[in-house]
Write a structure and sequence with these properties.
The structure holds two protein chains of two kinds. Chain A has three domains: about 40 residues; about 200 residues, MetI-like fold; about 55 residues. Chain A contains eleven helices and eight strands. In chain A, the strands form three sheets. In chain A, strands 1-2-3-8 form a four-stranded antiparallel β-sheet. Chain B folds into three domains: about 30 residues; about 200 residues, D-Maltodextrin-Binding Protein, domain 2, CATH 3.40.190; about 100 residues, Periplasmic binding protein-like II (D-Maltodextrin-Binding Protein, domain 2, 3-Layer(aba) Sandwich). The N and C termini of chain B lie far apart (about 85 Å). The chains are: A alpha+beta, B alpha/beta. At the A-B interface, helix 1 and helix 10 of A face helix 1, helix 7, helix 8, helix 9 and strand 10 of B.
């Protein structure tokens, strides 16, 4: 058999390029690893995670899990991780709402509304997030009046330079034994959903609309039974009220948290608005005209015709915006919110374990992002146009 | 069939490449540094043999040296001499200590020591390249060799000395952590920490301050909420805006930054409570013994000069002095400088071009109302004491 000169063979060249690339990559990684270990050894430094069990000995301003300075470094990093997760999760929810509203508003036929939305997107997208966070923190939230002159909004919500106070609920002593009823009520909703779907699949007809009342009635019934068995209420409304120099009760958002949440929501919302606008415009104009001529209202058209199709275009880029929001939350260190990165920076400074802690940070953000992508991919898979 | 031949050729080439690269990759790291962690893994008998067997024999001293980290003292000093300037890690936004002013000129107490080292080495106080470093990256910059010396109000602590692989120089400024509060909360400086029950305290991250704060309030049994900022100026700004009831930092920083940043410094009071000892000292990377010696002895020389009354103004008059102590210090007689591989008049140059310790202090810190206190000479009841030059 005749063999062509192999360096002229495109398949060989392709395979060779790939092998060479992998080798180069391995060499670079090997060099970096050797460089680090040589330099660490030269300075007599060791790498290890033993320090995580040592007491952290520094305070953390806000924490959703129990923490005190005598707890370990590992626990302190965990506190930071939870803080990051809280602000990211809330941020993703709010930014979706803001983004969808702004995106629809940009397409509004009302001149003022569409121009306002356009200005919002234009200004926010084109300025750095760090500057915006500084603005929200030093320019807005710290400029709110002192506690005694708090701005009272209906709710009651109080805005002060020491934080935003919202009405909330506090768990009573009966909450623990009540938990079982709450879980049962939540489980009943899922069960009803499955039952309805089974019925629909069999009869090929949608269930009558009034059946949907079951979603409300069954959980209420379960909670009511719980209330008969155990009359003590599990939750109490907790309303912030002025007590001495500070507010007591309610939920407090510190200025740092509020500024970070606001900054992230407003910033990411502008990007999501553009994604939503693009998604809606990707649905052909004829569909809207057809829906309107069938007598659907604009709202119905949006909900039933445009969104189901637009979502296919919207979801993939939306996922990367969610990831951006979570990663951008590491800018919290500039405005004093104790997120994962801020606390890790303190840990690095106290222990000197730079490489170890940076690895922890990277792995944390990586797993957060991968988990978010995973969920969004499932959602995307469900929303995709089924092609047969 | 064609596919199979291509596959075989590719695989053969790949294995040749691997075979060619693999030994190169494995031999390279040990060759550059004989005493890395990898050596025992690749050739255990060779490294164990000399350490175990050689110590009883007479050749032991020579044989064991390779086991010590391979940085010969003097490598860094030689690098600096060849380069012709000193790369000095400083603060950048800390008035009085390390500050880049609006004209682009570096000023400050720590900055002047950088100039003194440059003057001693090159007879040129401007042969310095300043690098502004944050509290977090300062030690990494030193470890990685990005800067030659760190002169950035850094506290000398055991952990930093032992774990971070640093060598600290003589203390240039004896500081202590203090706490500043508004006068409407804490009326006078003699109040204890319990006056701050439930307070929000602004603090900068990446300092020993955070740790001391927690320790001191825990010991006093006082509750507080820290609000931690990456940047000292952000912490001061948040304090100014009323986010915090108090702010904690080194006493020197509260005094200098407080006057520079706060709109009305008179409304605030720095409590007398001393929360910690903060000896601020320059640092170099561990293993650079000769360079560390230069850093140490220039500082000692400046302190010694103040003790002897030698200033940048009158130093030339002292060149004709009969006092052997002065003559040795200024390099008129003896060979003190050449023992470090420097010019014999290296202290003379530092004094002439930068000044003695007292001059540096007065020039940078007196305008902020900082008194010498603990930083006075030992002869005047302070802690500044130079090791003898002989």
């Amino acid at each position: 058999m005749h063999i062509r000169a192999f360096w002229r063979d495109i398949r060989f060249l392709q395979a060779f390029a790939q092998v060479a690339f992998v080798l180069l990559l391995a060499l670079a990684a090997g060099f970096l690893y050797a460089n680090v270990s040589v330099n660490l050894a030269r300075q007599g430094l060791t790498v290890g995670y033993d320090f995580l069990n040592n007491p952290a000995s520094f305070g953390i301003g806000e924490s959703y899990i129990r923490y005190q300075p005598s707890d370990s470094y590992g626990r302190a990093i965990l506190v930071g991780l939870v803080n990051t997760l809280v602000v990211s999760a809330l941020g993703i929810v709010f930014t979706t709402i803001v983004g969808i509203i702004a995106g629809i508003a940009r397409l509004s036929s009302n001149w003022l509304i569409s121009r306002l939305a356009g200005a919002y997107v234009g200004v926010i997208r084109n300025t750095p997030l760090l500057i915006q966070l500084m603005f929200w923190y030093f320019g807005i939230f710290l400029q709110l009046p002192a506690v005694r002159e708090a701005i009272a909004l209906p709710g009651p919500i109080y805005l002060t330079g020491r934080g935003v106070y919202l009405p909330w609920y506090e768990a009573m002593s009966a909450f623990d034994s009540w938990r079982v009823y709450i879980w049962l009520a939540l489980a009943s909703i899922v069960v009803i959903w499955f039952i309805f779907r089974a019925i629909q699949n069999r009869s090929r007809l949608p269930v009558p609309l009034w059946w949907y009342l079951a979603y409300l009635l069954v959980p209420v019934l379960i909670l009511w039974i719980g209330f008969i068995i155990q009359p003590e209420p599990p939750l109490k409304e907790s309303i912030p009220e002025l007590a001495g120099l500070n507010f007591r009760g309610g939920l407090r958002w510190t200025p740092e948290f509020a500024a970070l949440l606001f900054g992230l929501v407003v910033y990411t919302g502008a990007f999501i608005a553009e994604i939503v606008r693009a998604g809606i415009q990707a649905v052909s104009r004829g569909q809207v005209e057809a829906a309107l001529s069938l007598g659907l209202t604009m709202g119905q058209t949006l909900r039933l015709i445009i969104f189901p199709q637009a979502l296919r275009v919207i979801i993939p880029p939306m996922t990367s915006q969610y990831l951006n929001l979570a990663k951008n939350s590491s800018l919290a260190i500039a405005i004093g919110y104790p997120d994962l990165f801020s606390i890790a920076a303190t840990v690095i400074n106290q222990t000197g374990a730079v490489i170890e802690v940076i690895l922890i940070i990277m792995l944390s953000y990586l797993s957060m992002s991968l988990f978010t992508s995973f969920l969004m991919n499932i959602y995307n898979g469900r929303m995709r146009l089924v092609e047969r | 069939m064609h596919k199979v031949t291509i596959l075989v050729i590719v695989l053969a080439l790949a294995s040749i490449l691997l075979a060619a690269c693999a030994p190169a990759a494995t031999t390279e790291p040990p060759a550059t540094a004989a005493a890395t962690t990898e050596v025992p893994a690749t050739e255990p008998p060779v490294t164990e043999a000399p350490t175990v067997e050689a110590t009883p024999t007479s050749g032991g001293a020579a044989e064991t040296t390779p086991v010590v980290p391979p940085v010969a003292g003097g490598e860094r000093l030689q690098t600096i001499m060849d380069r012709g300037n000193v790369i000095c890690g400083v603060h950048g936004t800390f008035q009085g200590f390390g500050f880049l002013d609006t004209n682009g000129a570096w000023t400050g107490f720590d900055v002047d020591f950088c100039r003194a080292w440059a003057a001693a080495l090159f007879n040129d106080a401007d042969a310095v390249e300043f690098r502004a470093l944050s509290a977090q990256d300062r030690f990494t910059a030193l470890q990685s060799g990005e800067v030659d010396v760190l002169s950035r109000n850094s506290t000398w602590t055991y952990t930093r000395d032992a774990e971070l692989g640093l060598t600290f120089g003589p203390v240039t400024f004896y500081d202590g952590q203090a706490i500043m509060a508004r006068k409407d909360i804490v009326p006078d400086a003699s109040a204890g920490l319990d006056a701050l029950e439930g307070a929000n305290v602004c603090v900068q991250s990446g300092t020993t301050t955070e740790l001391n704060l927690a320790d001191q309030f825990r010991a006093a049994g006082v509750n507080y909420t820290p609000v931690v900022f990456e940047d000292q100026n952000a912490a001061f700004q948040a304090y100014e805006e009323g986010r915090c009831d108090a702010i904690t930092s080194d006493r020197s920083q509260l005094a200098t930054q407080g006057q520079a940043v706060l709109s009305n410094f008179a409304d605030h009071v720095i409590l007398d409570v001393v929360m910690s000892k903060e000896p601020l000292a320059p640092a170099v990377a561990q293993g650079d013994d000769k360079w560390a010696d230069v850093v140490h002895w220039v500082v000692y020389g400046m302190i010694q000069a103040e003790e002897l009354g030698i200033t940048s103004e009158n130093v030339d008059e002292f060149l004709t002095s009969e006092d052997p102590v002065i003559r040795r210090l200024l390099g008129v007689e003896g060979e003190l400088g050449s023992k470090l591989g420097l010019s014999n008049d290296f202290i003379y140059r530092a004094i002439k071009l930068v000044g003695n310790y007292g001059e540096v202090f007065e020039r940078n810190l007196a305008s902020y109302g900082l008194e010498r206190g603990q930083n006075a000479l030992w002869t005047q009841g302070g802690l500044m004491y130079a090791i003898p030059f002989r």
